[in-house]
Fold this protein.
Amino acid sequence: QVRLVESGGGLVQAGGSLRLSCAASGLIFSINAIGWYRQAPGKERELVATISNTGSVLYSDSVKGRFTISRDNGKNALYLQMNSLKPEDTAMYYCRAQRFTAAFWGQGTQVTVSS
């Protein structure tokens, strides 16, 4: 099992910044990829950004140039720096880890961007 705990969400004005954190514990060795997803009310959960165990990074087009994903292996932590936030970034943000064929999710942290 892999346990993921997100933090750092909140209410911010458009144009502002937030930094999300995800603390991983448990069977974190052999995690193939870890990343951030989000789900807005009435919409499907979507990929925001992921980083593989080789360091390859993938961003959704909607956040490219504004968000930066990073990881600190020593702290077993994943981060998402979000700049130039827009009201359409409002969603619950989830941390997800892929370990072999299993996927693990955190409980989410809410990000609300006011216009």
